[in-house]
Amino acid sequence: MDFLFNFNILFFLLAYLAGSIPFGLLLAKIFANVNIKEQGSKSIGATNVLRVVKQTNPKLAKKLSIATVVLDALKGTIVLLIAIALGASQSTLWGIGVLAVLGHCYSIFLSLEGGKGVATGLGIFLVLIPIPTIIGAIVWVVCGKVLKISSLSSLLGLTAVIISALFINNGLGVNSNAPMYIIAFIVYYKHLPNIIRLIKGEEKRVI
């Protein structure tokens, strides 16, 4: 049982459990009395919170959507900052990042279902590769305003982070880009249904 008290193992477990907290689902239930797992796209992310709650309370929908993005981003960020304060290695930090995103996308509290990892990944990247993430966030916001398609804007923003990191960062502090690619792969994979709808021209706009 000693492994349970290992520094890295404890933080990896904490990252996964924190990532698993379905803030979008909780906020919509508590403040709007709706179950977003049963409506809209059935995702627990901010876009579905906005889409579902907007049907009955547009003003509340925007507030809950913003709160969902912020809280989902903080899930990984807070664990990372604690680990940094305690002197965790860069490889441990990236492990925390990967597990936080996995927790969000495959939540232990939702029978291994979950969201698509964009906000949680953004929070992780903001701590570990801040400049590329700021570039990606700008692309995300601009594309969101222009295209009005949440999934496409998110994927373009993520792609901008990856490309920027390849030019700005060298090895992410662990002599490998693998952790960044793993997080990106999880997010891309969770967006496969959206990508298929985009190809077919069936993806809904956020109005």
TrEMBL record:
- Does this UniProt record's set of keywords contain rRNA processing? no
Q: Which reaction does it catalyse?
A: an acyl phosphate + sn-glycerol 3-phosphate = a 1-acyl-sn-glycero-3-phosphate + phosphate
Q: In which pathway does it act?
A: Lipid metabolism; phospholipid metabolism
Look up and give the membrane topology term: Multi-pass membrane protein
Q: Where in the cell is it found?
A: Cell membrane
Enzyme class label: transferase
Keywords in alphabetical order: Acyltransferase, Cell membrane, Lipid biosynthesis, Lipid metabolism, Membrane, Phospholipid biosynthesis, Phospholipid metabolism, Transferase, Transmembrane, Transmembrane helix
Q: What is its EC number?
A: 2.3.1.275
Segments spanning the bilayer are 7-32, 64-86, 93-112, 118-142, 149-168
Q: Which GO terms describe its cellular component?
A: plasma membrane
Q: What superkingdom does the record give?
A: Bacteria
Entry's Gene Ontology BP terms: phospholipid biosynthetic process
Family label? Belongs to the PlsY family.
Known partners and oligomeric status? Probably interacts with PlsX.
Q: Which NCBIfam families match?
A: glycerol-3-phosphate 1-O-acyltransferase PlsY
What this protein is reported to do is described as: Catalyzes the transfer of an acyl group from acyl-phosphate (acyl-PO(4)) to glycerol-3-phosphate (G3P) to form lysophosphatidic acid (LPA). This enzyme utilizes acyl-phosphate as fatty acyl donor, but not acyl-CoA or acyl-ACP.
Protein name, per record: Glycerol-3-phosphate acyltransferase
The organism of origin for this protein:
Halarcobacter ebronensis
Task: Give the classification, highest ranks.
Answer: Bacteria, Pseudomonadati, Campylobacterota, Epsilonproteobacteria, Campylobacterales
Q: Which gene encodes it?
A: plsY
